[in-house]
Design goal:
This protein is 27% helix and 21% strand. By secondary structure, it is α+β, with helices and mostly antiparallel strands. It folds into 2 domains: 84 residues, no CATH class; 77 residues, no CATH class. It has a 3-stranded antiparallel β-sheet with strand order 1-3-2, with no helix packed on it. A 3-stranded antiparallel β-sheet has the order 6-7-8, with no helix packed on it. β6 and β7 form a beta hairpin. The protein binds iron/sulfur cluster. Iron/sulfur cluster binds next to loops.
Amino acid sequence: MIKDLKQFVPSSVCLKCDGCCRFKESDSRWRPYIAAKEMKEAAHPNLTDKIFGKHVVGPDSRINTTPCGFGADAEGHLCHFLNPKDNTCGIYHARPFECQLYPFLLSRESGKAVLYVHLNCPHVQEHWNDQGYKEYAQYLQEFFKRKDVVSFLKENPSLLADYSAFRNELDQVCTLSLE
Ligand code: SF4
């Protein structure tokens, strides 16, 4: 389980934002994927089934949602672990790798791994291409060369998903070699 990924967006900013962990559809592609290893290591062995039971994680290994009713159309869905009152995550210290990586994400295109940044994140909009962003992007490129990280991605190919439908919301950071 990868636990030492530095964060681009400070927690204090995330806790004031009501963008993340909320989805338009109950089966949204943006629900976080959680690897079997992450579930196992996140919970006490005797509690794993209770915390990550079938109603919590879908057959696609993505965390399920609960209907909440937000936005103009009063429809919407929350990650099972989100507390919408204070934007905290119930499994923050064991949250899936995809949650740690966001607002960056991985895609597989024509056999290549591509690292994108999601331009919908307000912190990205504010800092996109400033020095801190450039340094973090450089850090990520080095991070994805680590053997343990490459192994984790190879074991979990679903982490490199198809985001082509959202291409206008993404900016490519770099391509990655996962060999
Ligand atoms: S697991 Fe936590 S950080 Fe990830 S989407 Fe759910 S509430 Fe958000």
